[in-house]
Amino acid sequence: MTMEVKANRSVVPASYDDQYRLLQYGDYTFTYTANGELISKCQGSVCQYFDYDVFGNLRHVILDNGMEIEYVVDGRNRRIGKKINGTLVQGFIYDDQLPIVAELDGSNQVVSRFIYADHTKVPEVLEKGGRTYRILHDHLGSPRFVIDTQTVEIAQELHYDAWGNITYDSNPGFQPFGFAGGLYDNRTKLVRFGARDYDSQVGRWMSKDPLLFGGAGPNLFCYSLAEPVNLVDSNGFACGSPCPNYPPGCGELPQKGDGQCPKCDPGKIRASLQEALQMYSWYARGGSSASEAAAAGGSMQTVAGVKCKPRVAPELPPGWHVYVSSWPPSTFNCSGDPCVDFCVCVHEWFHVIDRRPHDLFHWSQSYIERFYELPAYATEIECLNQYL
Asked: In degrees, to the nearest 5, what angle opens at C-alpha 321 toward C-alphas 316 and 325?
């Protein structure tokens, strides 16, 4: 398998446009909306068609056999149901934005319950039909075996290739999770990860990164920097390492000294941080405001009563400065949870920015990594001390 420098997959002859949209892959052709969502995937005259809502959620699929699949989405853009040819066949109950805690049938009766332990995205235990099953998954969170805890018999066994295609499934549909712990549809073969759907056949997202260049890299369709064996993207925004057994990647939060993951959700933290950095890029381009912020050097300013009080180390590495910016809490949709908001709710927020002479405002992966090259500053934020 070979990769282009911009992380386009090229295992078979493929062509892309200037926006990195896949136009042809072998004998498949693809078309898109002006916004970048995939709307057709054709192999000769045999096509599948896709439709989306105004928020970019995949809502309707017409398969090549004529079957129509409709996804039901709630007000928080969570997939809560599936209809086949107009009939509701499946539903989901969530504890929060993630994870799924129960699966429903077409009559809204609970058929499966899920219990989470070490992993926040992938359940460890399944309760179904009066029996309890243990879900064994790999380092990415992909279910490999579902085992009856009483009989120790294998209820489901799954194999995947490097890009997440299921190459063997002993009991299709027994539970709804697939590659890297995403929500798998065994009819469309797509995997839902939070904000987007992933097509493992071509190893790409069905739509652009909602964070645009606030994510990782210039290719907005690329899944996990084209490293699906080492990295995961559980929310459709930004990839990260499946710690604790793998090193940080794609701007992953620094791990604790004992090698364990932070207790909070790294994906939500990254999304909030990247949103903040995107907005700061716009602020910093303002000239005088940026100059005034730079002139503040390492001075400490806080607003009385705020939840998080950042502290700046007494010395900065050569070429580094501390910028201060003020934003109302509503700018970042603060929820009051420091894990989600990553101290973004504070009125005065300190940014450690690399100001060595090169352009940093293109929001590449390297920019996020430079921020995390200073773990001392991240751990100095009081509201995260309990998590890092």
From this structure: 130
